Records
---
Amino acid sequence: MNYSNNLFIFCSSTLAFASLGFVIPIDNYENNQLLNVSNSHSQLFLSPKSFKKLGLKESNWFKYYTEGKEKHSKVISIIAEANRYVLYLSESKDTKLITNISYLLDSSYFWANLFDHL
């Protein structure tokens, strides 16, 4: 093989690798804590950035995961505070005061996700 063939193989491989980054979707999850305030509702505190990405409105269903199980709660009300949003969710059957949860914020492609975190 001569120099031009090696260069062609290198450039082709690099281009193929870079192109794959636009095909591979990455799911971005956020971890948070759900507060069981009473038997009638739970609270979730969100940053403005997370709230905007979720795009939740009153009466929407909020899907989250806890202890490896998928759960759903209905958004009863949303209160905007100075630096956060408070979501009041439908009644919780969980008896724990604080429940660790995770939820899907958004999906992005590999390169967009990489450069977003730089």
Note: Helices lie at 3-20, 48-54, 110-116.
---
Amino acid sequence: MQDQKTLSLDEIQKLVEQRELKTALFMLKQCPYSDELLEVGYELGMLLESGKHWASALNLYHWLSQFDPGLSDFVTRVEEIRQNREPVQFEIRQDETLNIVGHYELIKKIARGATAIVYEATDMRTGNLVALKVMSSQSEGGVEQERIDQWLHEAEVVSQFEHENIVKIHDAARYRDTAFIAMDYIHGYPLSMRLRKRDYITVGECIRISKSVLSALVVAHNHGVIHGDIKPANIMYDEKLDTYILTDFGAAYTGVKNKQGNNIIIGTPSYMSPEQLEGKKLDGRSDLFSLAVSLYHLLTGYQPFTGDNLFELKQSIINDEPDLNHFTLPVGIMEVIMKALQKKTYMRFADAQQMLSAVEYCEAQLLENLEQKK
């Protein structure tokens, strides 16, 4: 049976779609923390702002910021509303006559996040369809400009990757007071959609997803890049190519430090490794932990670590062991996932290649067992 949390979020999503915003806000605040809650909360906040329900929007953003003060969009919007200023509009300022960003013509908005919008667009130089991710600058200098600089730097690094399971980045540049990244348009859907539909993955899909993501991570890690935000929403299924593609290296970590000498680390709390939550130096094993959390969630519909607020979530990730009662998996696959979920990095797989080899071994064993049953 699906837990009450998910059922409540489904009901809240319907209220949001029906524009019953005040009721949706009341119900949302009764829910425990989850990444799905943040997604619904962000959409609700945008609608409250567009309707100029400033008091309700302020109420919502204050409540959301307790879960993750690092959500700069929520925090910035709280300050803007508090100062009675017009909120930052995240839609990029386009040419007046056409929806043009540089040499890209915007077709439609396909996704929205805390700090960026993704558009379906056409590259007017080549005629190719692309996904154009636009990040908005909220200040003239300081941290926000610094984050844009790092965002573009990481995009430049990732653009050098040539791998079928890594989204191809074609272009990354500033445009007016913002910046954009142009990447392959994927004809498919993020695996978070499977969670929304409660259509959980099979063992066979788990193996294919694992092999695809781990193959991508082998390449990224060999280039010194840690993804930093492995989660179902960042793993796309390409229906045309029948493959899984790792996307959104916006939280990628290469060891770049900010002007204060601190590593700039962002990500999604529910899928973070203990060391990432604690702000420690990261290596590729952090991505392996996040992948294992994602697989657990996609297989069972449950997140292995939970909490009613960010503090409780952190404590769960750092101290709690996942509930194995949710699993009905072959022993080998379960052991792979549990090894990657170890709290101490030295107890996990040494690297993505070692975990990939373990998954491939499990796949071979399963195929052998099937052959013997024929």
Note: The chain is about 45% helix and 15% strand.
---
Amino acid sequence: EMNVGSSLVASAIEEACGTSRSRIREMYNSLGDL
């Protein structure tokens, strides 16, 4: 489950990689720790 800290990391990944939050969530669910 993604928490507040993970949400900040997801925002950074989203901005740095130009991917969507939903895609990051899919990758997190399938791969685990990003």
Note: The mean pLDDT is 86.
---
Amino acid sequence: MTIGDIYVSCSERRKELKRRRQRKRKITHFKHRSENASVSEKAHLAAKIRNMTPGADAIIESLKLEER
């Protein structure tokens, strides 16, 4: 392990943290939008969440965007 490796991994960690925080902000925004959304709008929000994160199914279920 060299000094360069340490800086790269730290930089990558910061990028990942930034992505995680942005996803959290978007999920919060979608949660507020889904409260008054119609069925078609909820389906649209669910599609956006699916494209955004790999753990989308759990999020969609908790926000009740798709009734099954």
Note: The two ends are 50 Å apart (CA to CA).
